[in-house]
């Protein structure tokens, strides 16, 4: 980067990309963190935005939570690249995520998809490269699917995005991916339904006073099972276990909660992997 700070003016759902960047960079700066992400530090230092005044200083475990989520997605990408080293990764709602630099094997092709105002900021901070480009397009606009080369395998990521869409829109997106990309996988995260409901009622506030946009869709075991019926090409829906983090919350409390059935459904992060099988002939979508 040229050392000149770029002003960021985002609001609503678009602003969440700055919240995520802030906490991921805080984790990357922490020598006790398990996340190595020098690119995130480089990016946040190039943005003119009142991060600490708006989002706080990373207390309450949010930075380490972002580190756990990032490492979980990185593990899924590396798993995909072991079998498809020349494959295509599609990152829906990519924001200012710097995952490409954390997992790049020198051969992967990467397509980021984001709202035009976010894509414009990203292109100023992280310009397109030969194997990584950003498409200014809503994830719910199926035009992005025409830009994907599926010949060498496809992994679709939706990191920190689907919770801001209504349930029926999410199901249509999964349906479209299943029909268009047989053999591919989709990995996404969601909050539990109880947390999403609190944001809808305006009852979720972070320590610095920031209130996230309403989350319109949250996960339950029942909802996770229902995803299997979204389209006949959905072959499997699996919960993804997050890696162990650092500190009391992410290193001990959350891993312990995952072992307790009564508590597991209330954990703050659900990561789900949906596998698409071969194309099947069908007359409609099973609900």
UniProtKB/TrEMBL annotation:
The answer, when asked if Transferase is one of the entry's keywords, is yes
Q: What is its EC number?
A: 2.1.1.-
Keywords recorded for this protein, A-Z = Methyltransferase, Transferase
Q: Which BP terms does GO give this entry?
A: methylation
Q: Tell me which InterPro entries the record gives.
A: Ppm1/Ppm2/Tcmp (IPR007213), SAM-dependent_MTases_sf (IPR029063), TcmP-like (IPR016874)
Pfam families (alphabetical): LCM
Q: What domain of life?
A: Bacteria
Matches recorded under Gene3D superfamilies:
Vaccinia Virus protein VP39
* EC class of the enzyme, as a word: transferase
The Gene Ontology terms for molecular function here are:
methyltransferase activity
Kindly provide the name given to this protein in its UniProt entry: Class I SAM-dependent methyltransferase
Q: Which species does this protein come from?
A: Streptomyces durmitorensis
């Amino acid at each position: 980067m040229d050392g000149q700070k770029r002003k960021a003016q985002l609001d609503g759902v678009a602003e969440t990309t700055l919240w995520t960047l802030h906490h991921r960079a805080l984790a990357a700066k922490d020598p006790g963190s398990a996340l190595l992400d020098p690119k995130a530090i480089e990016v946040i230092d190039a943005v003119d935005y009142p991060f600490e005044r708006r989002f706080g200083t990373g207390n309450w475990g949010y930075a380490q939570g972002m580190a756990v989520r990032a490492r979980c997605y990185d593990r899924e990408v590396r798993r995909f690249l072991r079998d498809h080293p020349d494959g295509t990764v599609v990152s829906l709602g990519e924001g200012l995520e710097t995952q490409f630099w954390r997992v790049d094997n020198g051969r992967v092709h990467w397509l980021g998809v984001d709202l035009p105002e976010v894509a414009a900021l990203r292109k100023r901070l992280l310009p397109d490269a030969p194997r990584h480009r950003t498409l200014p397009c809503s994830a719910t606009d199926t035009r992005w699917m025409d830009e994907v080369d599926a010949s060498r395998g496809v992994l679709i990521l939706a990191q920190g995005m689907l919770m801001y869409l209504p349930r029926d829109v999410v199901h249509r997106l999964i349906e479209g991916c299943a029909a268009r990309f047989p053999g591919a996988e989709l990995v996404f995260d969601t909050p539990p339904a109880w947390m999403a409901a609190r944001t809808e009622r305006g009852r979720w506030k972070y320590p610095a006073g920031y209130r996230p946009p309403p989350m319109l869709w949250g996960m339950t075991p029942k909802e996770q099972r229902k995803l299997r019926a979204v389209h006949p090409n959905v072959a499997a829906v699996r919960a993804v276990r997050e890696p162990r983090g650092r500190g009391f919350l992410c290193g001990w409390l959350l891993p312990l909660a995952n072992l307790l059935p009564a508590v597991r459904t209330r954990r703050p992060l659900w990561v789900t992997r949906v596998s698409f099988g071969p194309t099947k002939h069908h007359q409609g979508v099973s609900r």
